[in-house]
Design a protein that fits this description.
16 helices, MetI-like fold
């Protein structure tokens, strides 16, 4: 098992190196007008250095004055030392802005992921055990609706109904107008109230694919020979489904669950932007529009690390639930 994990870790490190190079190369290919605009903006401040001096400083700070290979190695060395630079958009260190926004996105992602799991997997199992019934058709319709609905359309629809028509929720923001007059518990409830609609959007648009995936794999397992053998031995249908069939259905589902790790920290760019929730997705969108290269490079590397960690977690969980992986 340890050899299996070590092999996966080493492979992830190699992949991360090449992903980092691709990210750096793409950023080097962006128009230099971003750097020029930042140098021009800083040079116009009272008592500031000249435009040429700012250009030279910014280019040296991000290794833009070197070739792509030396520049990449210099940037990678800075990243490994924990030197990520200052955000051009937020005018504070990149890590500080990241820490200010990522935990709100994590809370939203974790809550929506929890509800996605407890809703999608049971409904997928029920649909498979009652194939071609009204329940199966209803679950399939819900799943297809979740898969097909664009995030911006569903979010706008919820805002129209529950914010404009019914007035139950605010259209935008994380806190209400009377937030500062509330006690600690009231402030918590106020923030939770503002996160209801964004979390509903995240759950509905993401649970459809997991629901369909669970149903498909459950149907495949239920038609296996060992399930028919278990039934022939006189085992109860409940034990056949939830002890034998569902356990084997979990093997491919683990891959989906492990791959969802990046989503917990990556933020929901569209949802956070539509609801003006100051999470990491909203911050990355604002940085992207403003041409904040330091923040975007850090954010992209963060997503790359999360993706590789998610794949590594999937591989490890796959080996845990399937002994054949460990043996091979």
């Amino acid at each position: 098992m340890w050899k299996y994990i070590l092999k996966r870790v080493l492979l992830s490190v190699v992949i991360l190196f090449f992903v980092a190079f691709i990210i750096y190369a793409l950023m080097r290919a962006l128009p230099t007008s971003y750097v020029e605009a930042m140098a021009r903006q800083k040079s116009m401040q009272p008592g500031s250095k000249s435009y040429e001096e700012w250009m030279a400083q910014l280019a040296a700070s991000y290794n833009l004055d070197k070739g792509i290979i030396p520049g990449f190695l210099g940037w990678l060395g800075s990243m490994l030392r924990g030197e990520f630079g200052d955000s051009w958009k937020w005018t504070i260190p990149v890590v500080d802005e990241f820490n200010k926004t990522v935990w709100l996105s994590f809370i939203m992602g974790a809550v929506s992921f929890f509800f996605e799991i407890i809703i999608a997997i049971p409904l997928g199992v029920i649909a498979a055990t009652k194939q071609y019934s009204k329940t199966d058709y209803a679950v399939s319709v819900i799943a297809l609706a979740g898969i097909s609905l664009p995030t911006f359309f569903f979010a706008s629809l919820l805002k129209l109904v529950f914010s404009v028509k019914l007035g139950w929720f605010d259209l935008y923001g994380l806190v209400g107008r009377n937030y500062n007059q509330l006690n600690a518990w009231g402030q918590f409830l106020d923030k939770a109230h503002h996160l209801v609609l964004p979390i509903i959007v995240l759950v509905v648009v993401s649970m459809g694919s997991l629901m369909r995936y669970t149903r498909t794999n459950m149907l495949e397992v239920l038609n296996a020979d060992y399930i028919r053998t278990a039934r022939a031995k006189g085992l109860s249908e409940k034990k056949v489904i939830y002890k034998h069939a569902f356990r084997n259905t979990l093997i491919p589902i683990v891959t989906i669950v492990g791959g969802s790790l990046p989503g917990l920290f990556a933020g929901a760019l569209i949802t956070e932007t539509l609801f003006s929730i100051p999470g990491i997705g909203f911050a990355s969108y604002q940085s992207m529009v403003a041409g904040d290269i330091p923040f975007e490079m850090f954010y992209l590397m963060f997503l790359a690390v999360l993706t590789l960690l998610g794949n590594l977690l999937s591989d490890i969980l796959y080996a845990v639930v399937d002994p054949r992986v460990r043996i091979s």
